[in-house]
Amino acid sequence: MTAVLVVDDAPDLLKVLKITLQAHGYDVTTAADGHTALLAASQQPFAVIILDLGLPDMDGTTVIRELRTASRVPILVLSARHSSDDKVEALDAGADDYITKPFGPDELLARLRALLRRTTDPEQEPVVVTQDFTVDLAKHRVVRDRNEVRLTPTEWSVLELLVRNPEKLLTQQQILSEVWGPAYAKDANYLRVYMAQLRRKLEPDTANPRYLLTVAGLGYRFQP
Amino acid sequence: MTAVLVVDDAPDLLKVLKITLQAHGYDVTTAADGHTALLAASQQPFAVIILDLGLPDMDGTTVIRELRTASRVPILVLSARHSSDDKVEALDAGADDYITKPFGPDELLARLRALLRRTTDPEQEPVVVTQDFTVDLAKHRVVRDRNEVRLTPTEWSVLELLVRNPEKLLTQQQILSEVWGPAYAKDANYLRVYMAQLRRKLEPDTANPRYLLTVAGLGYRFQP
DNA sequence: CCCAATCTTGACGAATCCTTAACGCTCCCT
DNA sequence: AGGGAGCGTTAAGGATTCGTCAAGATTGGG
Fold it and tell me: pTM for the full model?
């Protein structure tokens, strides 16, 4: 769950923000002043910090600078002040976005999404691990016994398709049309050749496949 | 110099934006409609795109989506429409920031800086060291055997891209469109020439590359 | 205007990959 | 038992892609 720190000295607004964000699946921590906020931020990493500039104990810009000395966490500023100077000051201090009150919850949520989209690692590509080898989709890499396994482009395409659909049966037609194009959906000989290559490179016992399984008469299946 | 694409159908505003941005050191390209903008974006990589939503030929959201299909370039939206729905739509389509008219140049510039700060690489580990050479991203320098290696601008661009994505496979298309612009994504001959240059300057054994590896049929990879 | 550095382009062997065909195996049906 | 169908394996060509070189085009500075 995405951890968010909300900093605001107005109890009512803080409560509204907390409920709204929680309703949209965020894990919300709150703080009512600058020192509490800095303490919380130092103890736990947040995906984003929503910061109201009108705090009782510290200047908002100072809070931003303090946060920035320790981390690059995205900061979304809320403020009642519309002047250009205030915005420039906050943004140049290290804020990522600046919303002026009053604002609708939809806009806040949309800006939050935009900010998280930009800052969250695009490392969503999963790494599939088995007892004998590892497939890293993002890096296009297969490692076995600490050594990299060299795969040809077509071998990779077939493996990728299987690995992206673990435990799921893929018919020969599906694999062929996905890898070679819809026109090749008949000639299953390609596929047998490449399954053999992959097994030779990945399976500990080629004769008794453990991961790249044949489903007789239908197709193949990857078993993690 | 930072390349910026400004898209606006109002000639006056376009002119003002261009002059303002150029005065602050940006390299400005302009477009007056959606199709021109998409064409420009496909031929040259920009650090950021400033997009007015009120275009004559295309819906603004459509332009954003089209841009997003091809790249993750930061998009800053200008709009006369203040409604929450418009903002949400643009932001969720893939925009990174949304400014409503009228806006001051200071705010635009500050938001631009904030966006670029977030977007440009953090340079957390600007020095990449291998057993044979050192690449200092911040200083634009490569050192080998205590001597500086002279790289041409294009050689540097290619090396930088590879080094910033260690271990990750970069396809020829990715490298070509990053370094030469999206329009050159087909002619892989450039790349082969430059990989050869880099290997000659960096690899201890040019015939058996240890750092700049070829992944046949797909692309290249930097192995630290 | 010329020079030097850089980029582009084409060509060529070399390396790699894809396709194809052949053959052995198992399973199942006749 | 025989034979056919589907799958696994292997190896050899032919096609594609890669590395390399060098010459022409382009750019930028003096």
Answer: 0.78
